Amino acid sequence: MKTYATIDTGSNQVLIFIARVDDGEIKEVLLDKGEITKLGEGLNTTGVLSDEAQERTLKVMEEFKSLLDKYNVDNYYAVGTAALREAKNAADFLKKVKEKTGIDINVIPGEEEARLSFMAVVGGLNLKDRETVIIDIGGGSTEFIFGRGTEILDRFSTKLGALKLTEQYLKSDPVTDEEFESLMDYLKGELKAVNPPVKNPFLVGMGGTMTNLSAIKHKLEKYDPKVVQGSYITVEELEGIIADIKSRTIEERKKIKGLQPKRAEVILAGTAILKSIMERIGSDRITISDMGLRHGLMFDKFCV
Predict the structure, then answer these.
(1) Count of beta carbons in the 10 Å neighbourhood of residue 108
(2) Cβ atoms of residues 129 and 87 within 8 Å
(3) In order of start, what are the domains of the chain with their CATH numbers?
(4) Can you tell me whether residue 88 is helix, strand or coil?
(5) CA distances in angstroms from 160 to 136, 167, 169, 177, listed in the order given
(6) How far apart are CA 130 and CA 135, in angstroms?
(7) N or C: where does the chain have the smaller number of CB atoms within 10 Å of the terminal CB?
(8) pTM for the complete prediction?
(9) CA pair distance 261, 138, nearest whole angstrom
(10) H or E segment to which residue 285 belongs
(11) For 7-24, how does the pLDDT look when each residue is reduced to its tens digit (9 = 90+)?
């Protein structure tokens, strides 16, 4: 039995997953955690990763290197997503991470991110006989995967990210009705291109926005993946959550039970993206997957 790790360096959050694997199967999960570093903060305006965002993320990567050592990891695989695909100075940051920690981050295309996410969701929710639309709302992008069983029918990445749209549209604190409506109008236009190849698909959401919304619905004092995995949110519940979040300042949002305080600033934009997608697809509920890119990476790289 060997110990493997996967690292997902996202635009808003950095995550690590460490597990013992034997004969192509995960036998024991040793660690599954994430830290919000907002690596993509300001990227939409400047085109570069800020010094502060780099420092925050580098600090977490140093902590992750310590965890790789602590758990005696035999091998690992680390990836970067939207922020590292887009930033003009991404190569400099990757070099810093390598020099400080020895960790190599592989920047993957949005389509590959979608494929790996699909592997995690289908396996985790046993959707091998369903026609699905899977969405992953990140800080800098949103991935779509249309599938039938274990077959991907289509996959694509959009530049609709919770952190990016917060900076672009939701500038007041609390957010004004005009700002929110402008964001919803923008999303409606951008999502016209989303046309699922199947009717009445099973809609699944993954990523930090989704898991936080489930935790809010269930008023979780402490995050519990067993409660979140396979849970669902209806359109009506989502509208209630949006109204509550929108009425609060960022500091007041931090008191919402189930919401990670560091996600308070971007949760409204993430929720707006979700509502717009549900309206476009015509789904009245979405099922939540606690499994994400890091789990798909583990299946793909170390469980074959």
Answers:
(1) 19
(2) no
(3) 2-108 (3.30.420.40), 124-293 (3.30.420.150)
(4) coil
(5) 10, 12, 12, 20
(6) 15
(7) C
(8) 0.83
(9) 17
(10) strand 285-289
(11) 999 998 999 999 999 988
Residues 22 and 10: their CA atoms lie apart, in Å, by 28
Contact 205, 135 (CB under 8 A): yes
| Amino acid, single-letter form, for residue 137 | I
What does the pLDDT look like over 62-74, one tens digit per residue?
999 999 999 999 9
What is the DSSP secondary structure assignment for residue 263, as one 8-state letter? G
**Cα–Cα distance, 56 to 210 (Å, whole number):** 24
Instruction: Name the residue with tokens 């295309």.
Output: 109
Q: How many CB atoms lie within 10 A of CB 35?
A: 16
Q: Cis omega before residue 196 (within 30°)?
A: no
In tens, the pLDDT along 184-226 reads 999 999 999 888 877 788 999 999 999 999 999 999 999 999 9
Closest CA relative to residue 242, chosen from 218, 216, 271: 271
Token pair, residue 81, equals 């997503």
CA–CA dist 298, 300 (Å, integer): 5
163 close to 233: Cβ distance less than 8 angstroms: no
Place of tokens 């979040």: 245
**Cα–Cα distance, 85 to 197 (Å, whole number):** 28
